[in-house]
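Quick note —
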Amino acid sequence: MHTHFVPDDSARERAIYQALMAVDEVAAAVQAHLIEEHGASHERAAIEDSSTHSLKLLQQARERLGEGLRTIEADKIGGADGISLRT
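Predicted structure written out below.
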């Protein structure tokens, strides 16, 4: 017999929060790698190389992640367990 678990709204929001935070951490690590190892920067935007293009895409993705976190009021969710949110 298969039972189907239906999470309540707070559990669903917590799962979304955790997923968004994990994706943001991965994006932050890749962003740091592009800057440190490949010299990607906004100043080099005129020289559109692959690392600078990737940096722009990561920044757009992180902005969207931030919007998603604000939508689910992540400061309230994260504050409950002591997780601090970056600005």
